[in-house]
What we know:
Layout: H1 12-16, E1 21-26, E2 30-38, E3 44-53, H2 67-88, E4 96-101, E5 107-116, H3 126-147, E6 157-169, E7 172-174, E8 184-195, H4 196-208, E9 212-217, H5 220-228, E10 232-237, E11 242-247, E12 253-258, H6 262-273, H7 277-288, H8 294-322, E13 329-333, H9 345-351, E14 362-365, H10 368-371, E15 375-379, H11 387-400, H12 403-418, E16 422-423
Amino acid sequence: MKPVKARLPLSATALLEPQPFGVLDLGTGYAKALVIHAGPTGSLHVVGASQVPYPGRPREGALTASAAQLDAAAEARERAVERSPALAGRRVSPQVWVVAVPNHLSRTKSFVQESYRPVPTSAVDSAEAGALFSTATAACLESAAQTASAPAGNSPTIWLGPVWSALFLDEREVTSLEGFRATTFRAHLSHAFASAETVAGLRHWLDGLGVNAVFLPEASWAGEVLRRRRSCMLLDSGTYRTDLYLRDQQGGLLRLDLLSGGHYFSRCLSLAGGLAPVRAERLKLSYAGGRLRPRGRAKVEAVMQRAMSEWSGRVASTIRSAGVEVPGTWLTGGGASSLPEFSLLPGTLADASMAGFRRFPVLQPLAAADLSESVVPGPERLRPIHSVCLSLANRWAGMTRHRTGLADIRHQASLAIKAGFEVSGDWLKS
């Protein structure tokens, strides 16, 4: 057994100072890592990035990350740190690491809270705005506590944090409640939870590395993106899973899950060419990177276009079964979105004759402005596979570098504790 290294406390002072931190994303096929460093002016920059594949497919239904996933995450973390001397001028080894708890290891609950204002003719001031949101959050968390059932027997349930919020005054959506006159207030809120066994396994592993663990739900990255681009749908295509995030007709956040991703294209190459799975994966990556000769590229392209036609049918079926109307603009992210065939997705969806479209979608790759406001995506070169990491880095910076953001997340944590949940870190209890 490896010795447990000394771990420094995560103090409130350190949270408000521009300290370096890292982000880990345990995806379905790869572990990804980013190292974030504060420059001389205090701005945050990405000075290390890496991705390490798992040796096999993660088990479905598992409550904790597997040893193979954790080994890959440790290697990704070390590789990202080793990149920092060339980009930051010195080795940056953060003591704080933000870990994205995967969707399959957590669960998200959505709620709607409605109330009437006692004096609708007066404008909402800051005190009333805080009270309205706090009351809605408390009611939602208490409702979640009544229906929560931990998957690991009597293991307590951990509150991971908010994922989504949409606020309405008299059916008008607003980004801030202050200054408006209205009779009714409605809030659509989503919060994420995990079993104590899930969090304990990840925390024990990070304690062994001598770093502070901060846990955020994976789904919160989609909430961050759609907060800026609310009229879009987000398509995150990973190795074995594709998540589609969009707003429902009432304003809540909806996630559709498709158990198929980039590995499907590798499998088609493997079957068509009689290749070993590892070789087929490498061939797919070479094709996506434009490193194949023309003759070989033409053969691979024919296989990939057939695979895209079949895969898009699965996407259409998933959306059709949900019975929702999808937006006209789709933001694409995840490693599989780097395949050239993704540009053919609108046409193949048209062939699928999918109901529920006002028009067939326009695809837009996720840009840095969609993912981050506080973290500059450079000097390190980032790929679509790092979308979740960059968005969560921005979320962590927004929560901890400003006193208002820190006070807000801690207030929500206190409401979660009152509702009977445990929280995932001591820094939330301060």
